[in-house]
Every structure is written in structure tokens, then in C-alpha cells.
Design a protein that fits this description.
CATH topology of the largest domain: Rossmann fold
Number of helices: 15
Number of strands: 13
Strand content: 15-25%
Number of domains: 2
Helix content: 25-40%
Radius of gyration: 21 Å
CATH architecture of the largest domain: 3-Layer(aba) Sandwich
CATH class of the largest domain: Alpha Beta
Distance between the termini: 45 Å
Strand order of the largest sheet: 3-2-1-4-5-6-7
Largest sheet: 7 strands, parallel
């Protein structure tokens, strides 16, 4: 009953704001949001930066949620999530770019243009309508509402486009199969990123980095989240045995778990908290190995053909609670449900077979290598700012 009442209130607010918008002129500016104002990152970041490079005279607004700090460039205007200014920015900006969902109370005017980049890509986790039976009423209403607002979705593969059509409630609008802007950086890696990341964390140049980036999970079985089940010391020892070089593990929690990052793990000089590092893509590029449970970030990492591993002790529970598109055993990434198995996978890792498997997988899902994808999107944005 409470959910139904909230939905009614949100829809009334939407109608009121839609009427008020008639008294506000539209402005030639763009509003961006990533994870409801929790980060400056993902596809919106790279679109925002490319847009400013191409069209520097336009105002760009980024939303920032209370309790979070996004480190955006000086040319970006930061607006507090949930504020009156956020509402007026949404009502009066000609173009929106978002990696998540617009609020249920948010109306869209006829001459506004909304680009939904989403925040996944090739990945494991089922989304939106594909997990309707596991969503609450407000989440379902918000998801359906967001889909009605969208003018353009971007995709990085035929496989993903098919999922979007179905999972976004039968979305029948345009999908631009251009590849993801956030992936493009992996095909043009800047060597300075390696030294910048190591300098930030105070890590010597000869030390290799393993990035552990578990995803968010709504419910946890006995033992808590996966990042509490990994024996970090054993993993470091295995990596050093395999390569004969020193290693450090950087732990980066999902944005929805970031509040617990500081005290989630017993950090040491070899196990480092990387959850506050401003750029996920840069952190990924600088790493020599990637570990996750269900994060789509491992597919971003795979474009560099570096070693990626899956560690998911809660796999059975997760598949029941959330559902997956891909069986964890049937991807190119060695899969483990225990630290012991993960260590075995590290010690027996065959790079040649791994790379061959990656290439076969990308062909199977018809992955699109991004060529100027951000530029393509920016040109479309410019058309709708005229």
C-alpha cells in the first residue's frame, strides 16, 4: 500500500512539474548523471569530455548526490541531487545524458532529448524487466517511466541490443550500435595512466596490480558479501609465485557499497582501498589482472586481453536472487567459488588459451569495437541543441 501511495504522489508531482515547465524556456545545455549523482564516470563522463572538446561554448551540468563527491573538470557545473536547481535544470535543459534512471517524478518536454547510456554493457546480471519478479513496485514504475522518456539507447553489441529491446519493457526507439565511449579508452591506452595510478597509491613501478571489483548484491547469504570471503593474502602469494614479482591488490567496491568501503576489509600495504579513486576506467587500464564476481567491468578489461578471473562464492544464491545472462563457467574467464580454486586458476593460467577464448566470445556476441563512439553521440546531441 505504501508503495502505491508513493507512486501516486510521484505521478502527481510529475504532472505539476510538467505544467510549471511551460513557464520556463528551454536552454541550450546538457545535464549529465551517473548512478543518481554518486560518481563522475562511466559513459556519461567520456561523452561529457568529448562534447566539451568539440563544442566548448555549451554549459554542462552534472548532478552530485549528498554525501558523495564527484571530481569533475572546472568547466562542469555541479548541482546537488534532489535540489530545486536540479529540478529546474532537468525541466529547462534540451539534452539529458544518464547511465541509470530518471526519477519517477521527472517529466520530459517535447523538445528535450534523452540519451540513455546504461551502466553495464556485456555482462552477467539480468536487468529491469528480465528481473521484474524480483523488483518492488516503485522500482518497476521508475524503470517503465524511464523507458518512456528515452529517445536514444547506445549499445556495444548485437547481443546487448537484443537484451535492451526486451529488458527495457519492449523499447521500440532507436538504438545506436556504436560501441561504448567508456570502452574506447582501452584501445588507445595512455602509458602515463600506469604511473599516475601507482603514484596516487604510493606503489612502486615494479609492483604489479590486481584490481578486485565485486559488484553490488541486494541480499547476501551466510558469510556476507563476496569481498569478505576472499583470502587476500593467499591470493597475493599465488600471484607472486606465478610471476616471480611483487603484487598489490586494489579493492574497489560498487558505487552502492562505497559507504562501507573504508571499514569493509583489513587493508595492508598489499591490500589497498581503491573505492574512492576518481576514475574506474583509468584504474582498470593500469591493472595487470582483474577479478570480479558479476561486474561487467571485466568485459571492459578484456578488450586489452589481460588476465581476468571470476570469484563468486555466492553464485547459487545470486543466480536465484538476481539471475544471470551468462553461465559463469561458460565465459573465457576462469571461474572459482572459493579462494582455493581461485588460487589454482591463477597458478594454472594459460594466457594463449585465454586470449583465444576471449576473441571467440567477442565474435559470438557480435561486439562492436568503438571507433569515435563519443564523437558520434556528441554530434547527435549538437543537433538537438539547435
Amino acid at each position: 500500500m505504501k508503495d502505491n501511495i508513493k507512486i501516486v504522489i510521484y505521478k502527481i508531482a510529475e504532472k505539476i512539474l510538467y505544467v510549471l515547465a511551460f513557464f520556463m524556456p528551454l536552454k541550450k545545455r546538457v545535464v549529465f548523471s551517473n548512478f543518481s549523482g554518486k560518481r563522475y564516470g562511466d559513459n556519461p563522463k567520456y561523452i561529457s569530455e568529448k562534447f566539451h572538446e568539440m563544442y566548448p561554448d555549451y554549459e554542462l551540468i552534472w548532478f552530485e548526490k549528498a554525501g558523495y563527491h564527484i571530481e569533475a573538470p572546472d568547466y562542469v557545473t555541479i548541482v546537488r541531487w534532489g535540489s530545486f536547481r536540479m529540478i529546474t535544470s532537468l525541466l529547462t535543459s534540451k539534452v539529458w545524458v544518464d547511465s541509470h534512471l530518471k526519477p519517477l517524478w521527472c517529466p520530459k518536454r517535447k523538445k528535450q532529448f534523452y540519451i540513455e547510456t546504461w551502466h553495464g554493457g556485456l555482462g552477467f546480471k539480468k536487468i529491469e524487466k528480465d528481473v521484474e519478479d524480483k523488483m518492488d513496485k516503485i522500482s518497476i514504475a521508475a524503470s517503465k517511466h524511464n523507458t518512456k522518456l528515452v529517445d536514444l539507447l547506445i549499445s556495444n553489441s548485437e547481443w546487448l541490443s537484443d537484451i535492451y529491446r526486451r529488458a527495457f519493457w519492449g523499447y521500440d526507439g532507436e538504438i545506436l550500435l556504436c560501441g561504448y565511449p567508456k570502452e574506447e579508452v582501452f584501445y588507445h591506452v595512455n602509458p602515463s595512466v600506469f604511473s599516475e595510478v601507482r603514484s596516487y597509491f604510493g606503489i612502486a613501478k615494479d609492483v604489479k596490480l590486481a584490481l578486485y571489483a565485486p559488484t553490488f548484491c541486494e541480499t547476501h547469504p551466510e558469510g556476507g558479501p563476496n569481498f569478505k570471503k576472499l583470502d587476500y593474502e593467499k591470493l597475493v602469494a599465488a600471484l607472486e609465485e606465478k610471476t616471480g614479482t611483487p603484487w598489490v591488490i586494489i579493492v574497489r567496491l560498487h558505487p552502492l557499497d562505497i559507504k562501507m568501503a573504508e571499514h569493509a576489509i583489513d587493508y595492508t600495504d598489499k591490500i589497498i582501498n581503491g573505492s574512492d579513486y576518481p576514475g574506474m576506467q583509468e584504474l582498470t587500464m593500469a591493472s595487470d589482472l582483474f577479478i570480479t564476481d558479476y561486474s561487467s567491468g571485466i568485459f571492459d578489461y578484456a578488450y586489452m586481453e589481460k588476465p581476468g578471473f571470476l570469484f563468486a562464492p555466492d553464485r547459487k544464491n545470486y543466480e536465484e536472487e538476481r539471475g544471470v545472462y551468462l553461465s559463469l563457467e561458460n565465459t573465457p574467464f576462469p571461474f572459482a567459488e572459493s579462494t582455493e580454486r581461485l588460487v589454482d586458476n591463477v597458478l594454472s593460467f594459460d594466457e594463449e588459451a585465454y586470449v583465444a577464448g576471449l576473441r571467440d566470445f567477442m565474435k559470438e556476441v557480435q561486439h562492436v569495437v568503438p571507433h569515435n563512439s563519443a564523437e558520434q553521440i556528441c554530434k547527435i546531441m549538437k543537433e538537438h541543441l539547435s
